[in-house]
Fold this protein.
Amino acid sequence: MNAEDRIERTRTLYDQAVLGGDASALADADRDLDGVEADTALARGRILHARFLIARASSGSPAVEDPAELPLFERAIELYEALGDVRGQAETSFWIGCLHQVIRGDNETAVPHLERSREMAAQVGDKTTQAEALRHLGIAAHAASRLDEARERLEESSRLRREQGALGSVAANMVGLAYVAAAQDRHEDALATLDRADALAQANGAHAIVRQIEHARTQI
């Protein structure tokens, strides 16, 4: 049920309570509105995160964390937990982990959130969130010089992303795999991976990933 459906249902529940005398309908209305609030908080947090990423990519000065981002995710996960919404918890746990890793550079804090996200997403068959969590667990493993683990996580993320048809995101993972290959002294593999990533990114309009590939070529 989407936000519009939930809000519309509260109108019916209002009538049931006020006209029909069914007070229990109000509890159902509260749950629907909590779901809308959780979805909105999560969506707002994601938009703030996107603004950070765009500022980091385009600005000469360091991007700054928006102090509203983490409280939005924390409110979302509080509501999802109260609602027993495992899918919502999985997605929000990912974004909390992503904030700690990407914005704050704190993998130690990020990894437990990412692991929780991966496990809960697998529980409910949410392959999109599972793939996101695996990607960022791969990044954390790379940062810790656990290169075989990093490669395994990124390859599993790519497999899930291919299943979902998210080929631009597969190209993003291939950039990470190229860096892992370079760190393992597999330089030819690294460059070949970037070539394949570039073709995939170009074909799928992933222009930001193309720029990442161009930068990676200067580093590998």
